[in-house]
Amino acid sequence: MKINQELCVGCGQCLPYCPMGAIERRKDTSQINWDECVECGICIRQVKCPVNAIYEPKETMEWPRSVRKVFSDPTSKHENTGVRGRGTEEVKSNDVTARFKRGFFGIALEFGRPGVGTRLGDVEVITKVLAEEGIAFEAANPLTFLMEDVRTGIIKADVRNEKVLSGIVEFVIPQENLEQVCTKIYESAGKANCIFSWALISRFEPDGKLSVIERLKKIGIKPSRNMKVNVGLGRPLRED
Amino acid sequence: MTHSLHRIGSEETFQDDYVLISRPAMGINHVGCSPKIRRTLEIIFEEGPTNLGSLTTQENMTMGLDPQKMIAKTEDNSPVMCCFNERQKVVNVLTRLKEEEVGLSVVVTGLIDNVLGICQEVGLKPHSVNISLGVHGNG
Fold first, then answer.
1. Where are the extended beta strands (E) located within B5-104?
2. Is residue B1, in this structure, part of any structural domain at all?
3. Alpha-carbon dihedral A139, A194, A134, A213, rounded to 10 degrees
4. pTM for this one?
5. Beta strands in chain A (DSSP E)
6. Are A43 and A17 in contact (CB under 8 A)?
7. Domain ranges, ordered by start, for chain A
8. What is the span of the domain harbouring residue B62?
9. Which of B25, B110, B136 sits opposite A189 (nearest CB)?
10. Of A203, A212, A236, B79, which residue is 20 to 30 A from A19 by alpha carbon distance?
11. Does domain A2-62 have CATH number 3.30.70.20?
12. Which ranges of A33-177 does DSSP label H, i.e. alpha helix?
């Protein structure tokens, strides 16, 4: 995004709306820090600029800057997923897709958050470790699409410095690999240059139990009790 | 842009705090599903959510979202996203979605014992769960 410096009256009304704090006040006008802007579009959608000075320049949609919008603007859809936002439908429609089956766990690592964001290259600290473990990254995920080689977890050079609000790494592991993979992520977490949230998707067992909770506790990971439950209303229902 | 799963707080603060999301599965049951999304929205508005947001109209209830206008603009891939601060309202919404066999997927985020209790009361068999393993790294 940019602010037309000829139109801007420097009222500063737009400053509080930017989740990245990328709008800076100059002597007589406000200006968007081009390197820090993640192209989330909140300024242009929500700010009632009195002179309509905020605009989306054509460079926003030019490669490689265009990836910023895909990962940061919740209203934009990625061509791989058809889903608005950075990830996939994960657990939300698992009763219909059966993407996460019994005997397997889904893992999602979301790098960056509103307020801090992430450079796409920063995710490599974890993706390289995961690649060494033989992890197969989710093919439909937008971040996998930006890997130079999914066998190494290395991000393409031309997008490494692009800043986004957040990006999600997704993959599935056999249940017997839980302790090994989670320990690797846990050990590597301190080396990450940005913050990331970590989530695990599991099927309920036929008796309704979640034995994964006790397994995680045994390796020192205490899951939150606030959980997102797919209640099984989707049709056609797929058990596996 | 953040999501409901990684919210941090004491269990007391989550006691009457439920996030409900409903959506079709892209490529499986999304084609022609907008009537189901509209019906889901109607049921939710009748029960009275604490808030509901729309990616389509770029509004939420605190900004004066008009339910009828929003429902009219529903598309086949429009997700339904709302929150409730009363357990009974969640029970009512899920009961009606089940009885009417609407058929869209629904996730409810909240304290696991509370959500499982709601499922038991409604007669639902929970399918899968997304579990937060915390926030890590350096920011």
1. 18-23, 51-54, 59-60, 80-84
2. no
3. -90
4. 0.90
5. 2-3, 23-25, 30-32, 54-55, 104-111, 118-119, 147-149, 154-155, 163-164, 167-174, 195-203, 226-230
6. yes
7. 2-62, 77-218
8. 16-122
9. B136
10. B79
11. yes
12. 42-46, 66-72, 94-97, 124-132, 142-145
Q: Which residues of A touch B129 (CB under 8 A)?
A: 91, 201-202, 204, 210, 227-230
> Measured between CA atoms, how close is A11 to chain B, in angstroms?
23
Strands of the sheet containing A195-203, edge to edge, are: A167-174, A104-111, A195-203, B128-137, A226-230, B105-111, B18-23, B80-84, B51-54, B59-60
The reply to whether B11 falls in a domain is: no
Is any Cβ of chain A less than 8 angstroms from the Cβ of B64?
Answer: no
Closest to A130 measured CA to CA, from A187, A75, A176: A187
> What single DSSP character describes residue A83?
-
Best residue in A182, A203, A233 for a mutation probing chain B (most B CBs within 10 Å): A233
Interface test with A, best of B95, B128, B138 (most A CBs within 10 A): B128
A183-235: pLDDT as tens digits? 999 999 998 888 999 999 999 999 999 999 999 999 999 999 999 999 999 99
Evaluate whether A2-62 and A77-218 have a shared fold: yes
Distance, in Å, from the CA atom of A41 to the CA atom of A36, rounded to the nearest integer, reads 13
Q: How many domains does chain B have?
A: 1
> Which position has the token pair 């022609």?
B32
Query: What is the spatial distance between Cα A150 and Cα A85, in angstroms, rounded to a whole number?
Result: 21
In angstroms, the CA B91 to CA A142 distance is 35
Contact A166 B1 (CB under 8 A): yes
Domain A77-218 falls in which CATH fold?
Answer: Alpha-Beta Plaits (3.30.70)
Q: Dump pLDDT digits (tens) for A9-50.
A: 999 999 999 999 999 999 999 999 999 999 999 999 989 999
Inter-chain CB proximity A84 and B79 less than 8 Å: yes
What CATH number is attached to the domain comprising B43?
A: 3.30.70.260
Domain-embedded: residue B134: no
Kindly report the nearest CA distance between residue B24 and chain A, in angstroms. Answer: 7
